[in-house]
């Protein structure tokens, strides 16, 4: 997607793409980070969003999941939470039930060379819980965008049984071009899990440019599908037995050590 700062427009685009995926046989559909609202202004974001209790967007997608009989992950939405917002993923079942939600843990507070500074913590409060949920194909671990740079999060989810890791994102073009494919393949290889990473792409109304390249990666690090730099649906067939195969070949998830650090001067 190339989400904008107009909520209704984004919902309409997301729904059309979700329907297209379902019509083509998708059983699990995922959308990018900031599906419903992409606005980098803290003031404007807070003026447009609601609390989860008051918000109607996620209920719209819950009903859509039920209508289409699919599992649906809305990569994230801005949800009012106290004086700030939460950057929150929503997972819906084919019955239209909200199975679980996840609040992004790691805030994107960086100063990039040749780009503006980003201070996600100005608008959003961080979550404090890793989340995994049961799907028909195995457990799925939820994360969002900048979480990708913190390998320990994915390791603990994999060790807790996750066989699929989701990374909806809105990577900037500069960091995405440099690191997106490499980091996602690394997370898959390190954990022996599938990685599903739906991404924002292109030039947004607020002046930000995102990298795109929605990816599906298998547990051996092979890229099964790459969305490139276009808006649209990316699909792949998944063989879950490859998780067991990868983890049997390299059982690193069971080889953790407690290591003391000695600093020598």
How do the strands and helices of this protein lay out in sequence?
Elements: H1 7-23, E1 28-30, H2 42-48, H3 57-68, E2 71-81, E3 84-92, E4 98-103, E5 109-111, E6 117-119, E7 131-135, E8 138-142, H4 151-159, E9 162-166, H5 173-191, E10 194-197, E11 201-203, E12 209-211, E13 215-217, E14 223-226, H6 241-249
Parallel strand pairs: 1-2, 8-9, 9-10
Antiparallel strand pairs: 2-3, 3-4, 5-6, 7-8, 10-13, 11-12, 13-14
Helix pairs in contact: 1-3
Structural descriptors:
Nitrilase/N-carbamoyl-D-aminoacid amidohydrolase, single chain, 265 residues, four-stranded mixed β-sheet, six-stranded mixed β-sheet, alpha+beta
Order of helices and strands: HEHHEEEEEEEHEHEEEEEH
Low-confidence spans: pLDDT under 50, at least 5 residues?
A: none
What percentage of the residues does DSSP assign to strands (E)? 25-35%
Overall average residue pLDDT: 95
Global geometry:
globular
> Can you count the beta strands?
14
Question: How many angstroms separate the termini?
Answer: 51 Å
* Radius of gyration, taken over Cα atoms and rounded to an integer in Å: 18 Å
CATH fold call: Nitrilase/N-carbamoyl-D-aminoacid amidohydrolase
Residues in helices, as a percent range: 25-40%
Q: Structural class of the helix and strand makeup?
A: alpha+beta
Q: In words, what does this structure look like?
A:
The chain has one domain: Nitrilase/N-carbamoyl-D-aminoacid amidohydrolase. A six-stranded mixed sheet has the order 7-8-9-10-13-14, with helices on one face. A four-stranded mixed sheet has the order 1-2-3-4. A two-stranded antiparallel sheet has the order 5-6. The protein is of the alpha+beta class. The protein has six helices and 14 strands.
